[in-house]
Amino acid sequence: MNVSAQAPILLVEDSQEDMELIQWALKKLSISVPVVYCTDGGDALDYLYQRKAYSDPELSPRPALVLLDLHLVAVDGIEVLQEIKHNQDLRMIPVIIWSSSSDPQNIEVSFRQGASSYILKPMSIKRLLSVIEMLNQYWFGFAVLPEV
Q1: CA 112, CA 86: separation in Å to the nearest integer?
Q2: Which residues are in the Response regulatory domain (predicted)?
Q3: What pLDDT shows up at residue 6?
Q4: How far is it, in rounded angstroms, from Cα 4 to Cα 61?
């Protein structure tokens, strides 16, 4: 993966188990990408706006992309997506919805609000590894991302 230390992936996920599985998959696949973990939408917005604990831009650089769970406590994923896509400084960051919901309404709303992609959380280790590898290959191998 050719992501510099200045441009991490922001993973917004309230499930500790899912977070640990993603960390495990990255390690298993030898993908050494910086990942910033936020466990709720409010924390993610603080990171993106470089507020509170994230006020130092050197320690909290803008992410190359956001992997965003939909169903979060307090500030949900759709609200975070709306904030990102309605902010001049953030809207260029690709946002991938990472959800266990296959509800067509959630998928439609996500794309209407500006999601770059919608991925169903894999239900097996084999599938998780495949999805993480494909994300790596596409977003950091083939796609051309804007400067952050």
Answers
A1: 12
A2: 8-136
A3: 53
A4: 11
Helices 104-112 and 77-85: angle between axes, nearest 10 degrees: 20
CATH topology of domain 9-142: Rossmann fold (3.40.50)
- Sorted by where each begins, the domain ranges of the chain are 9-142
Three-state SS letters, the chain = CCCCCCCCEEEECCCHHHHHHHHHHHHHCCCCCCEEEECCHHHHHHHHCCCHHHCCCCCCCCCCEEEECCCCCCCCHHHHHHHHHCCCCCCCCCEEEEECCCCHHHHHHHHHCCCCEEEECCCCHHHHHHHHHHHHHHHHHHCCCCCC
β-pairing, 95-99 vs 65-68, is parallel
pTM of the predicted model over 0.70: yes
> What is the C-alpha separation between 57 and 91, in angstroms, rounded?
18
Q: Which of 59, 12, 5 is nearest to 33 (CA)?
A: 5
